[in-house]
Write a structure and sequence with these properties.
Helices cover 38% and strands 11% of the residues. The protein is an alpha/beta fold and 203 residues long. The protein has a four-stranded mixed β-sheet with strand order 3-2-4-5. Strands 1-6 form a two-stranded parallel ribbon. A hairpin with a 5-residue loop joins strand 2 (59-64) and strand 3. The protein is elongated.
Length: 203
């Protein structure tokens, strides 16, 4: 008796639903992710057990390095332009379109007003290297506000709901952190976040 040959059938799996799900997941993560901006100096945050998260928008970030240099950034680029225009106007400085575009494109700002125009005329790579040596001055001007206070006041004037967050290195001397906080208190900024890394049981 001859063998019965079974007809081979090709197995076909429709991958369309799977590819649709993958594209949806990719779009979801792209739209919900927040990208961290590069910082001019490397800062290692002190550890704490607090788990309060800093808001993701409407935040004025203040970065303080080991040597006490202060840098800032804002998440809203349109408001940042308004803040820059307000502060520079108080010093009688008018930025060109190119200078303003360079100011907005930088991840953080921290050039003193007396070198701001010259700084913004530099190439991007040069600006990022030079910024490490600068920083927003904390010294008061003619007994009035400091440049640091003027930036914070202008940011508050542009966005009344803005939150202030301070990120300092674990090796930054306490007297410098205290001075930054005192500068904020002098302009009635008494609520702010202190950014730390979460301390685990192993630490």
């Amino acid at each position: 008796m001859g063998k019965v040959k079974l007809k081979k059938q090709d197995i076909w799996i429709d991958m369309t639903p799977m590819s649709d799900v993958m594209v949806l997941l990719l779009c979801f993560f792209m739209l919900t992710s927040t990208f961290t901006k590069p910082e001019p100096v490397k800062v290692v945050e002190p550890q704490s057990v607090a788990e309060i998260k800093v808001p993701e928008k409407d935040v004025l970030n203040i970065l303080v390095d080991k040597e006490g240099k202060v840098f800032m950034n804002m998440d809203n680029q349109f408001q940042l332009a308004d803040v820059a225009a307000d502060v520079t106007d108080q010093f009688g400085i008018t930025l060109t379109k190119t200078q303003m575009a360079n100011f907005k494109s930088d991840p953080m700002f921290g050039a003193p007003m007396n070198v701001l125009e010259k700084f913004l005329n530099m190439e991007e790579s040069t600006r990022r290297e030079q910024l490490k040596e600068l920083g927003i001055p904390l010294d008061s001007i003619d007994g009035g506000k400091s440049e640091f206070q003027m930036w914070v006041k202008s940011a508050r004037g542009v966005n009344s709901d803005i939150k202030v967050a301070i990120k300092a290195d674990r090796e930054t001397p306490y007297k410098i952190i205290k001075r930054v906080m005192s500068e904020l208190q002098d302009i009635d900024e008494n609520r702010y976040y202190l950014i730390t890394s979460l301390k685990t049981q192993e630490d």
